[in-house]
């Protein structure tokens, strides 16, 4: 191998269109900005005011975010779930404002409830991001199939027995999600996979996941990872969630080195810089 050539991160899936945007996987790392329309976000960045959420989303896009991920329920451990009506009440106020603010930028909806997903797509969302990998609500995969939108399936280790190999557990969980999606009529080429960093894993397993992230390329789908401000970072660095930008930056750069396709982050300004520099090293992508 020519030492001046880019790092070989393996084959990438064919391009995918989300909303009006074509994503050529492998060309560079794409950045997903998080907008939490909830008063109880683990990272302390929850916004319930539609105008404020719209301004944040617009600022993220201006800073280089390729996707906005909008959620209205906290997914932190041991937190009581929000019912579908309350979740939609929050989203129904914020989604139209964000949609107007970011116009053509794709919006994904972070929800595990089929009824919320259905309403969100009807209101202008472009894709669904399900932290249960379509295994929480039996109607979710069918809703996605009928809507004809892409979806992100995350492996969630909470409540599952650890089989001894982090990547094998994740691979098996994601294969199950793919099977559920395909059985409901969702084509495999509309799926993005998320290994679920920090969801049911302790720090040791979470870092093992990140170290071996590239092994999941054998599933043949784009990979997304959300390490931003997670407790595993705090375990190493200390500090509250809002003080974990530097630790997050390290995990993002390492994920790029593993060939990840999308990073889901809170601090878009900083992480866009991280991905651009990491892409220059790993993929040889320069302005």
Verbal overview:
This protein is an alpha/beta fold. It has a single domain (16-282), classed as Dihydropteroate synthase-like (TIM Barrel), CATH 3.20.20. Helices cover 39% and strands 14% of the residues. The chain contains 9 helices and 10 strands. The protein has helices spanning 50-63, 84-102, 114-122, 140-147, 166-184, 203-211, 231-237, 245-257, 268-282, and strands at 16-18, 21-23, 30-36, 67-71, 107-110, 127-130, 151-154, 191-194, 224-225, 262-265. The strands form 2 sheets. An 8-stranded parallel beta sheet has the order 8-7-6-5-4-3-10-9. The protein is globular and about 50 Å long. The relative contact order is 0.15. The model has no long low-confidence stretch (mean pLDDT 93).
Coarse shape: globular
Order of strands side by side in the largest beta sheet? 8-7-6-5-4-3-10-9
Number of helices: 9
Structural class: alpha/beta
Unreliable stretches: none
The radius of gyration is 18 Å
The portion of residues forming beta strands comes to: 5-15%
> In oligomeric terms, what are we looking at?
single chain
The CATH homologous superfamily name equals Dihydropteroate synthase-like
| Overall structural domain count | 1
The CATH class is Alpha Beta
Question: First CA to last CA: what distance?
Answer: 24 Å
The beta-strand count equals 10
Helix residue percentage: 25-40%
- The succession of helices and strands, N to C, reads EEEHEHEHEHEHEHEHHEH
* CATH architectural type: Alpha-Beta Barrel
């Amino acid at each position: 191998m020519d030492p001046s050539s880019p790092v070989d991160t393996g084959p990438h899936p064919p391009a995918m269109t989300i909303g009006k945007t074509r994503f050529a996987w492998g060309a560079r790392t794409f950045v997903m900005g998080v907008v939490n329309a909830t008063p109880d976000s683990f990272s302390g960045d929850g916004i319930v005011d539609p105008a404020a959420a719209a301004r944040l989303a617009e600022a993220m896009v201006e800073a280089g975010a390729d996707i906005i991920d909008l959620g209205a329920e906290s997914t932190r451990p041991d937190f009581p779930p929000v019912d579908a009506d309350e979740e939609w009440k929050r989203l129904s106020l914020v989604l139209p404002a964000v949609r107007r603010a970011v116009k053509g930028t794709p919006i994904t909806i972070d929800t595990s409830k089929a009824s919320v997903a259905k309403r969100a797509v009807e209101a202008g969302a472009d894709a669904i991001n399900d932290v249960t990998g379509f295994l929480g609500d039996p109607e979710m995969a069918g809703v996605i199939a009928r809507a004809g939108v892409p979806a992100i399936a995350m492996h969630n280790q909470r409540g599952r027995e650890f089989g001894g190999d982090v990547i094998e557990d994740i691979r098996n969980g994601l294969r199950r999600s793919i099977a559920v999606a395909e059985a409901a009529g969702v084509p495999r080429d509309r799926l993005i996979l998320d290994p679920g960093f920090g969801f049911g894993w302790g720090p040791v397993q979470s870092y093992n996941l990140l170290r071996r992230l590239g092994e999941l390329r054998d599933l043949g789908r784009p990979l997304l990872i959300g390490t931003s401000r997670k407790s595993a970072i705090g375990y190493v660095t200390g500090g509250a969630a809002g003080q974990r930008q530097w630790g997050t930056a390290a995990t993002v750069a390492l994920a790029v080195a593993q060939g990840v396709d999308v990073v889901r982050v809170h601090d878009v300004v900083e992480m866009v810089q991280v991905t651009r520099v990491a892409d220059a090293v790993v993929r040889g992508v320069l302005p």
